[in-house]
Amino acid sequence: MRVTPRGFDTEFDPAQVFDDPTEMDLRPGADNCYKCSTCDTSCPVAEVDDDFPGPKFQGPEQWRLKKGDDRDIDPSITDCSNCMRCDNVCPSSVPLSQMHNTARGEYVEGQAPSLWSAEDALADGEFREALSYLRGVPSELSIEFVRNRVLSNYGTMAGLGSEVPRLTNLVMGSRVTKWVNDRFFGITAERDFPEFATQTFREWWRERGGPKVESADKRVAYFHGDYSNYNTPEVAKAMVRVYEFFGYEVRVPTQRCSGTPMFANGMLRDARRAAAVNISNLSDFVDRGYDVIASCTSCSMALGQEYPELFDIEGTQEVSTHTYEALEYLRIHEDLEDELRDADVEFPDLAYHAPCHARNQGLDRQAVELFGELDSLEVEDVGDSCSGISGTYGWKTEKYDTSMQIGEEMFEHMHDATGETGLTECPTCAMQMGHGTGYEIRHPLEVVEAALVDQ
Amino acid sequence: MSSRTGTDTDVVVIGGGSTGCGIARDLAMRGVDVTLVEKGNLTHGTTGRMHGLLHSGGRYAVSDQQSARECIEETRILEDIASHCVEKTGGLFVQLDEDDDAYYEEKLQGCRDCDIPAEELTAEQAHEIEPYLTSDVKRAIKVPDGAIDPFRLCVANAADAERHGGRVETHAPVTDLLVEEIRAEYVVNATGAWAGRVGEMAGLDIEVRPSKGVMTVMNVRQVDTVVNRCKPKGDADIIVPHETTCILGTTDVEVDDPDEYPEEQWEVDLMIDELSALVPILEDARTIRSYWGVRPLYEPPDTGTTDPTDITRQFFLLDHAERDDVGGMTSIVGGKFTTYRLMAERITDHVCEQLGIDRECTTADEPLPGSEDAGVLDDYMDAYGLRSPIAKRSTKRLGSKADEVLETDDPNPVLCTCEAVTRAELRDAIDHSGTDLNAARIRTRASMGNCQGGFCCHRMAYELSPEYDERAVRESLDELYQERWKGQRHALWGEQLSQAMLNHALHATTMNRDRDPANDEEPGIEYGAFDAGPGPDAEADRSATAAADGRVRSDGGVSDDEKDSSENGGTGKQEESTRGDQ
After folding, report:
1. CB-CB under 8 Å, B387 with A12
2. By the 8 A CB rule, do A18 and A268 touch?
3. Do B281 and A36 touch (CB under 8 A)?
4. Which of A12, A65, A68 sits opposite B393 (nearest CB)?
5. A284 touches chain B (CB under 8 A)
6. Cβ neighbours of A61 in B, within 8 Å
7. Is A381 helix (H, G, I), strand (E, B) or coil?
8. Domain A201-333 belongs to what topology?
9. Is B455 on the interface with A (CB under 8 A)?
10. Interface predicted TM-score of the whole assembly (ipTM), two decimals
């Protein structure tokens, strides 16, 4: 008998022939699956949608059934919200999220090859050629493609919008805009578009003159992401103040979207471009002794896990191993519990929801554990259900109902909790929490800031 | 009764492998009254245990050029007449840095001598085709090797024989050649490695030299083309992509008895160790099972070859009237799967000559059932309401039968998720194979994926009900589950060990199949009382028992999961299955 436990390695190197992640062969990843179906039982979409075949089919089964040159991915891949819970619960380390992201990328490529060609032609200034590619593409397909493209490139849109934040807020909040978005672009009118801050975080940072603390050994590069730059700069500011309180030198590298919404929409070309910029800029900082800190758990997930799973860009691994979530990092290097124990904080009682992506990084209990030390406020975990919005997913007209059904459990538990203010690390979970309960939603860094930093 | 001679049939063909089925088809197509008898189910012997390689002839291009020429010709024919059984994968002969240049040149020249299209590839080009090849590749030769499903091919031949008036009797062992049950004017012994056994019954001495070879089935396709190591004969030098899997092969060891020979772990280890040099990812890849086949090698008396790898792969037609003065019987021995049709043609020519029939062979031109209309295969998108990989796999298997089988108004859930087999496809197989679930398995591939039936054996058995009674269903389930277990015994490490444990837990514990009281001859449980429902006394407890029922459903349909839980499984042969599982 063979005694060496062959195959206990959970890692395999997918064959990546080209730079294009959709060319990746993930079939060997199916070796790890013994079909226990734990992934299916933890999938929030499968729980509410009987037509969704679930992660076991989407991942190991579909990959195993592929031949090398097959490009026809089942359309149900677009119903996956990319919460990545399956990835987390699999007892056998099947690379589920890598499989889903790659398959989704292949699906979108296969659906819209002429749309991508049109874009390439446009970029070259060949308008006639671009038009010729667009002829013959069904209009529903191009509209869906454009919508997903716009949603996944939120940063670009937000950059424009926040040039004139008050006007944008007025326009985006109007009923007419919502109706048009819903009717023609498939962006639900049920939700209120998040307001743009009158001053972005980066504007504030420039105005402030950059870091107030310099240090030779405590140095972090802050990956704020688009949302806390354009919409919730108070979170980013809290991050800076808290870190400076602990004596860290904070730098804010030039950056683009982490890619999370692009992965979820199968826009792997866009994701790769954004990742290339981020990896290049962040690895410069890592080389100089900085660790990378994100205040959004999906951003830290993208940098830490999805980049190395999908891209072979130089410096990816280096950035990945030096990336941390903001509270996680402080808990590793500082005695945060001790600091908070005697702090007096004026903050409302909180109903905390752990984002799925925080859960995947093992961070789902940290806010509750930390703030449990505070006598002056109560924080309750509202349970382990998914909020249901999953970034851009819940913004799509056809996914809105699914999104709200998934969120139902969380809304209920929030109502049952003592606190009437929500708390979470993830900006889109925050949108969903606010949408479902009407509560104001805060970020854990804001609590730490209120407890420790004199303003 | 045959009209010609007063016997039951004109010709009996013994052996339901590729050759026997091919002969039965050829004879039937030429209007001969033929009966095929097979002791197990079709492909029970060597055919069901072959590698799945459709030879371009490249493998024999140096050592056995006549076989090589026959292979390329027959491969072209099978690509045509059996398109639903063939995958045109192409093949590579890969030379590594350490391999001999002279042999590479010989191979290339040999292919060209035999009219086998052979294209030289640089290491880079070879990697573009097969990215998981080792970086030690020096160069490669590309040839038109392919993959073939021996099961579907045999079944199609048998079906076509029946369509032309032939009879096919499976589970019909030949006990004696003089028995009264089936009288025939002529007997064809197409039993391959078992030809000597059958010959003995007629007092004939047929010197087959059965030689075993191991094949190890990987869980996924690490390669999509047939990958051969380009060096002179050796063990463990070929990887064949087969459906969802890859099959590694093989060894060549002479055995005394085609039914009883040792299946040794070193053979499996050798496959993985040697072939990892060619495709390194195999080293840690998951193996789902291993099986052994016995080659029906034959060499004419007094050739005296000692090493079985040197025995020719050509086939021989032994007319026992000429050879042994025993009339009315011919044996066909040697040869290989790829040339089964040619062998059938030759022996049918011979039989027809004996019977005075003058009809041309048409088996090279007439497509087999399932391959009549190649266009159908490309037309699966959006068809039948199936998810795309399922529609694709199922349509490929069914070929031109796809419409007939998959177009159904009934719910058509996927029963075997590993291999994407739906209820409609399985029911169609059962229509042809009855309670023999292994026969349904080879027609559909259900239970041949990574869980090896752990999640679908019972679903498959359930489809036999209510047509067949409970006892028959349980026996079929046991038989299938045991067959699946047999091959996994040689893969019990890493992931497949986890799989086997999970399967055992599901079947023995969750389904209670090792202690199911329903298996008792005299059950101690009063099912009658239970089935009659609660009496008036129990009315008060109703709310308490309702929850345990677990069968309440809102849509009125039966979901798969509910079927699983409502179906008890069970082992008719309790001890045997328990022993097997340990």
Report:
1. no
2. no
3. no
4. A65
5. no
6. 389, 417-418, 420
7. strand
8. Glutathione S-transferase Yfyf (Class Pi); Chain A, domain 2 (1.20.1050)
9. yes
10. 0.86
Query: What are the tens digits of pLDDT across the range B396-447?
Result: 899 989 989 998 889 999 999 999 999 999 999 999 999 999 999 999 999 9
Q: What is the pLDDT of residues B309-367, one digit of tens each?
A: 778 788 999 999 999 998 899 999 999 899 999 999 999 999 999 999 999 999 999 99
CATH number for the segment(s) A21-111 = 1.10.1060.10
Contacts of B364 (CB under 8 A, 6+ apart): B77, B81, B341, B345
β partners of residue B13: B36, B188
Hey, is the C-beta of A24 within 8 angstroms of any chain B C-beta? Answer: no
B244 touches chain A (CB under 8 A): yes
Query: A28 and B454 in contact by Cβ < 8 A?
Result: no
CA angle A112, A117, A123 (to 5 degrees): 130
Question: Is A28 part of the contact surface with chain B (CB cutoff 8 Å)?
Answer: yes
Among residues B149, B218, B179, which one has the least CA distance to residue B12?
Answer: B179
Q: Where are the domains of chain A?
A: 21-111, 163-194, 201-333, 336-452
Which domains are delineated in chain B? Answer: 9-46+151-208+309-355 (3.50.50.60), 86-148+211-295 (3.30.9.10), 408-521+561-581 (no CATH)
Asked if omega into B250 is within 30° of 0 (cis), the reply is yes
Instruction: Note whether B125 contacts A: Cβ–Cβ < 8 A.
Output: no
Amino acid at B562: E
Q: Are A298 and A306 in contact (CB under 8 A)?
A: no
Q: Please state which architecture CATH assigns to domain A336-452.
A: 3-Layer(aba) Sandwich (3.40)
**Range from A366-380, A417-431, B188-202 that averages highest in pLDDT:** A417-431
Binary contact (A25, B392; C-beta < 8 A): no
**Closest Cβ opposite residue A68 in set B224, B269, B418:** B224
